[in-house]
Amino acid sequence: MFGHSFKSRIISPVILVLTTLTIALTVLVSVKFLSFNNLLIDDKLLANAQSLKFFLEDSKNRTRAAAISVAHNPEAIHAVKSRCPEVLRRVLESAIDLHRVDYFTVTDDTGIVLFRTHEPDNYGDSLRHIHCVSAALDGRVSSQFDASVVVKVSARTGSPVYDADETFLGVISAGIRFDTDEAVDRLKTYFNSDVTVVFGDTRIATTNVRNGQRINNTVVENQNMIKILTEDKQEYFGNTDVTGIVYRIFGLPLLNAQAEPFAAILIGAPLSELHAESNALVRNIVIVSGIGLLAATLILYRVISSISEPLAMLSEGMSSIENGNLNVTICHEESGYEFGRAGRAMRKMVNTLQRLITAINVTISEHEKGNTDYRLDSSTFYGDYRTLVEQIIRLSDLGIIDQLTKLPNRRSFDNRLTLEWNRAVREKMPLSILMLDIDHFKDYNDTYGHQQGDIALQTVAGVIPKPIKRAIDFVARWGGEEFVVLLPNTDSNGAMRVAEEIRTKVENIAIPSIDDGTTKNVTVSIGINTQIPSPNKTIGELIAKADEALYRAKKAGRNKVCWHKSEEEK
């Protein structure tokens, strides 16, 4: 009777305490993981939002460069003057690949279409209503986002064409389209997120599918989002329903030459996929906690009948844990063998969970600061705990490491750049950035295939870090075939030396083909910018100037290093 009562009075509360502890710890760790995952989601979307703005601005710059360049091409000038479609076709189609634009349109000196690369048989209509064309008819180069009957949404630039005697001949306009499936597919690859282009409140191009088909020409469900984008002219950041699936969305209105919104670009990803790995980790935590609870209960049941004092101590310790104190003594080392073992097991579990929670918090903090080299040490954990830690590492790497090149990704670079920028502002030290782009990569891909292109990206990614000698320097994949190197406390001369060494090392490598055993050579063009950051300067300026230098390197013939000198060094 006593034994039964004793067991009832001791085991039941202990089981209750263990259960409460397990649930509390599971909820705590789950909340931490969900918080970390939500942070990754929003960080990715914010990074994509910034990248989208850079991409759109770069699109206008590319169309501007293309229109002006072709408008000064002697062969193009002669073709416009002679109204020769075949010469126009040959000149403009080669210029499309050279300038990375989607189309050219040529009009005469009254705005009547002479030739379109995207619809060669469609000509004779007037484009005077297109702002960049009308501006070019007045002798001005103009770039903006615009809509027309043929191309609904595009970035477009018009440039006047003059003969050698300054006779006005017509207008050449260049554009990058956003209203086609090919365009949104290209953006999806760039942002690793679904992309939709909205005209009014209708999807005209999207990567979202339903029943295996794109949902083009359908009305957007969230009309409030459309109102914010089109009527309020504001950006949108939030959740929205897409054919019954909740997406985390960033929306950016496109403004025409009159600063009126006529279209919008949406980027986002379904929350269900983004939370999938977190849910898997939570399930593992529940399993591990359940096993621990069962083991503790069996041990307690076997020893509870013969020893009371260790049980009382154990119960007291578990009560403290229930109140949120993990730093407790479960039982004395001199207790009986069974209880000593149970106490050690419980202490080990508590210590492991303490270390795990601490490690999670440290990992989140380090990665938020841009320290992508920080990793949890799974070797200090065992069994299912080690499996759990390895899953955490995998989830962490998905957010900070580019899976193809194994270099830090764009989000990691943005965090690191912010950290080094703020440090440079405080210390008034120079900060250098190198923007690298693999030359003719699209042609390389088209010639040798995407698999060979991936090998080229991986090979170049393996070569770039070799000249980097300091731990504070940082190499990352910017996106596509572009890479970026951050050199804190490095002046322009030091940055130039590093860039030239990288360019030379890449030039000297030969990449074996997977098809016929031959080797292919690749080169890179590099743009450099060095600044001494200050509160009145921005990170965007640092990147933009490096990108301009990269463009000059490309324009100078590729396999070059060009740099933009900072005001402090001029």
Describe the structure.
This protein has 570 residues and is an alpha+beta fold. The chain folds into four domains: 166 residues; 103 residues, 2-Layer Sandwich (Beta-Lactamase); 92 residues, PAS domain (Beta-Lactamase); 155 residues, Reverse transcriptase/Diguanylate cyclase domain (Alpha-Beta Plaits, 2-Layer Sandwich), CATH 3.30.70.270. A five-stranded antiparallel β-sheet has the order 2-1-5-4-3, sandwiched between helices. Strands 7-6-12-11-10 form a five-stranded antiparallel β-sheet, with helices on both faces. Strand 6 and strand 7 form a beta hairpin. Helix 2 packs antiparallel against helix 3 and helix 8 packs antiparallel against helix 10. The longest helix has 70 residues.
Shape: elongated
Q: What is the first-to-last residue Cα distance?
A: 94 Å
Low-confidence stretches: none
The total count of strands amounts to 19
Number of helices: 16
Which strand-content bin applies to the residues?
A: 15-25%
Strand and helix layout:
Elements: H1 2-71, H2 74-82, H3 85-99, E1 103-108, E2 113-116, H4 131-137, E3 142-146, E4 154-162, E5 168-177, H5 181-191, E6 194-199, E7 202-206, E8 209-210, E9 213-214, H6 223-230, E10 236-242, E11 245-255, E12 261-270, H7 271-274, H8 276-303, H9 309-322, H10 337-368, H11 383-400, H12 410-427, E13 431-438, H13 441-448, H14 450-463, E14 474-479, E15 482-488, H15 492-507, E16 510-512, E17 519-521, E18 524-531, H16 539-555, E19 561-564
Parallel strand pairs: 18-19
Antiparallel strand pairs: 1-2, 1-5, 3-4, 4-5, 6-7, 6-12, 8-9, 10-11, 11-12, 13-15, 13-18, 14-15, 16-17
Helix pairs in contact: 1-3, 1-8, 1-9, 1-10, 2-3, 8-10, 8-11, 10-11, 13-14
